[in-house]
Amino acid sequence: MSLAAVLAALTGIASTDAAECPRKDALGTSRILSVDAKTTPRVGLKSFPQTLALADHEVVLTFDDGPHPPTTSKVLAALAQECVRATFFLIGLHASEHPDMVKRIARAGHTIGHHTWSHPFMARIPFDKAKSEIDRGIAADEMALHGTSTTTPSTPFFRFPYFEATQAELDLLQSRGIVVFGADLWASDWNEMTPEQELKLVTERLAAAGKGIILFHDPKARTAAIMPAFLRYLRENGFRVVHVVPAGTSQKNADTR
Ligand SMILES: [Zn+2]
Known about the structure:
This protein is 41% helix and 17% strand. The chain is an alpha/beta fold.
């Protein structure tokens, strides 16, 4: 491991509690929001009529499809530098390949949600196959996190690949008390573009929306590249980062996980 990687790892482990942030002028995490499947089973205006109760200029940062160590570690370093916490929706297959990176994300205080085992189009496969994609993904994430293979997620947050779901799949997750996260806006970082273009696009969309759940992909190099500048933009434009945790998680637990 290079010195830079060691330093990044150490920074990642450090608490990102705003009060304990080593940099006084950092963006910081402004508050923790508990999300309960009983009251908000589905959130995100791109897919659903309702979203999280965010105030103007509040954002929730979410990253899908990791972990992918080369870029995920850069995203973690940028988040740690500004003392902000995010949510990572992991692909189970990737979690099983990189369990140390999964543990590192969790140790840095971020929330870990689930994003299936192999990222299929969930509305185009039989229900049984979809159910097994959900369960196998959760089990792989939990194995990476805690060494236990269970289909009961320690954090009951799930996001569908491509935001594609059937009603039966949505009902299944609701019956299991798992919150389905959509997004309110995204960086379109799956499209070919330069980091500068991505930064311009996502900041313009955020300025227009004023708040919301933002979707990025941490395996994308352009997203890892813009994260320091994007967080600086948030700080300089009065945005505040909200950290989402499952209902029943006390702030103390959220801070020391
Ligand atoms: Zn995805």
